[in-house]
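Duplicate of #3305? Posting structure anyway:
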């Protein structure tokens, strides 16, 4: 498949099992005619899912594939994705585990959203467990799906506080608000080619010292570095990636890391720092931010 950015609107499929509020946010962010991509297909293993109804209301093709075992579901789903020329698949409250047969061909183009700060709290009953552990902060994670449960490389995370008196229901509602902005932003990063799983052969690209540094980063830190790498590549400065990882690439490296941070989350202090950079660097950085922030 062609790597992102495609140079044409991407065709997105969403898999959902339930109420579909994330689906709604994705359809809102990627309507027909959007230059970056549109939700073209919604699939559910649950024929009664509100998600299907939401899709139909917006005129998006909605298909129920009632669960008759993993193999049958995956074969039908894979065939449909191919027939509809889908470019990326977004799991949004999809309650089944997908096998390597499904995941492997879609790796790098298959995302999930999970309501915790992965790698903490994978699995179910997340809010209950977060409260029981006395956490003061939680969040949601958009990640690339691999063969495990909630284990794939992180693409984007958002945080919310846990407040005294919070219940699992209150936390869930707080996180849903966050997710409805987080997921579309993550998809924009994917479609713009600014987010991808750690590529093979980083030693060759970055040099040994920078690659070693990257491999030692935590799963939550890696996405920032990958976005900086993507930006430097897009700016025709790929040879600065290794030095930038080591903090030795001057203004271009700083600009790439500041922009990479702001692509995930706004930060007034970093925005101010951008203005102190040379005009050429600043303009590149602001152009990248505008692509992610303004719905096209
Ligand atoms: C969300 O909390 C999401 O993080 C999790 O499932 C829930 C789906 O909610 N994967 P909705 O169906 O999108 O409303």
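Output from current build:
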């Amino acid at each position: 498949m062609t790597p992102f950015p495609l140079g044409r609107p991407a065709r997105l499929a969403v898999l959902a099992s339930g109420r579909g509020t994330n689906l709604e946010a994705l359809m809102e962010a990627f309507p027909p005619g959007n230059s970056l991509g549109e939700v073209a297909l919604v699939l559910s293993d649950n024929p009664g899912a509100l998600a299907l109804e939401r899709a139909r209301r917006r005129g998006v093709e909605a298909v129920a594939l009632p669960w008759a075992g993993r193999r049958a579901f995956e074969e039908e789903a894979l065939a449909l994705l191919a027939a509809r020329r889908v470019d990326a698949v977004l799991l949004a409250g999809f309650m089944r585990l997908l096998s390597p047969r499904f995941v492997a061909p879609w790796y790098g183009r298959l995302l999930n959203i999970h309501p915790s700060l992965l790698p903490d709290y994978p699995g179910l009953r997340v809010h209950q467990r977060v409260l029981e552990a006395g956490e003061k902060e939680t969040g949601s994670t958009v990640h690339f799906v691999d063969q495990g449960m909630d284990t794939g490389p992180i693409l984007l995370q958002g945080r919310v506080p846990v407040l005294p008196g919070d219940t699992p229901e209150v936390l869930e509602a707080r996180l849903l608000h966050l997710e409805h902005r987080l997921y579309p932003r993550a998809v924009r990063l994917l479609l713009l080619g600014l987010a991808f799983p750690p590529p093979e052969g980083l030693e060759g690209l970055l040099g040994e010292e920078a690659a070693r540094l990257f491999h030692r980063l935590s799963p939550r830190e890696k996405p920032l570095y990958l976005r900086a790498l993507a930006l430097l590549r897009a700016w025709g400065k790929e040879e600065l990636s290794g030095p930038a990882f080591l903090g030795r690439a001057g203004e271009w490296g700083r600009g790439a890391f500041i922009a990479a941070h702001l692509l995930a989350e706004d930060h007034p202090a970093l925005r101010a720092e951008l203005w102190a950079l040379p005009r050429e660097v600043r303009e590149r950085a602001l152009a990248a931010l505008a692509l992610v922030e303004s719905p096209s």
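Confirmed duplicate; merging threads. The CA atoms of residues 103 and 146 lie 6 Å apart. The first strand starts at residue 10 and ends at 15.
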